[in-house]
Amino acid sequence: MTYSSYGNPDVLELSDQPMPKVGPGMVLVKVRAAAVNPVDWKVMGGYLDSMLDIEFPVIPGWDVAGVVESVGVDTPQFAPGDEVIANGRKDYVHGGTFAEYVALPTRLLARKPRALSWEQAAGLPLAGLTAAQVLKRLALRSGETLLIHGGAGGVGSLGVQIAAAYGARVIATASERNHAFLRSLGAEPVSYGEGLVDAVHGLAPGGVEVVADFVGGVLDVTLAVLKPDGRHASIADPEVEKHGGTWMWVSPEGADLQELSQLADDGQLTVEVTKTFPLEQAAEAYRLNIEGHTRGKIVLTVS
Questions:
Q1: Cα 281 to Cα 199: distance, rounded to the nearest angstrom
Q2: Is residue 253 assigned to a domain?
Q3: pLDDT tens-digit profile of 219-252?
Q4: Can you give the C-alpha Rg of the chain in angstroms?
Q5: Per-residue pLDDT tens for 48-58?
Q6: CATH number for the domain including 186?
Q7: What is the CATH number for 72?
Q8: How buried is 245 (Cβ within 10 angstroms: 0-12 exposed, 13-18 middle, 19+ buried)?
Q9: Domain check: are 111 and 132 in the same one?
């Protein structure tokens, strides 16, 4: 799938592109599945033009699960046939994962979790790395109470599980229809919107030590429930920096991703896949993701 100009999902088209070149320290991955993330359509819409260099035509997509087809010169870490996952963000936007093949540096790769399907594995990298790196930056410790804004989404649902694996108590916001889902992941659910501050104080009368914001627009709630010496971070609201918080952007580190893969194989982490689409229906997958009301991940499959 490619697009040759910024725009809405209608600019996506199925096209034939050259086979990616595989340089030293790189591998060619035969794609089995690729997850859709909000950043994909934000890049396509031109919203990140001031941050990212673009080379048209763009093959979109960063998340991938697939099989190593071939390796470049001096690449002892992987061999053809290895099953891998990656957040394949490169230095510029051009050759992404919504394709039959993608070439990636080995530093981005991790072994695919055996416990997850191809679709689940494809949904792990960007969302999982985002959640894990936020919680690491916040130095979340066992026994602390964490509030997650947006606990049922792709990032939040993984954040709940990672925090639980750390031994933290997790309170997470979601619509009421997703409360049972959050309980199944190990969180205490609360409904977002009016009454949220009181609901959190009802569960944690003294406030919470840590807040992770995965949705934005909730800074007032964060400050109202955070202990005076608490820590907070957001992936969606730069305003947190004016109030002692951290605004974060995910780093595509293969070593961090390998830790998440191990958590999955240890039975402490799974990935909720809401819906899958064949590659040629990427525009429909984008539209569903743009609506913003899905639980878990939307994934493209490549036959």
A1: 41
A2: no
A3: 999 999 999 999 999 999 999 999 999 999 999 9
A4: 19
A5: 999 999 999 99
A6: 3.40.50.720
A7: 3.90.180.10
A8: buried
A9: no
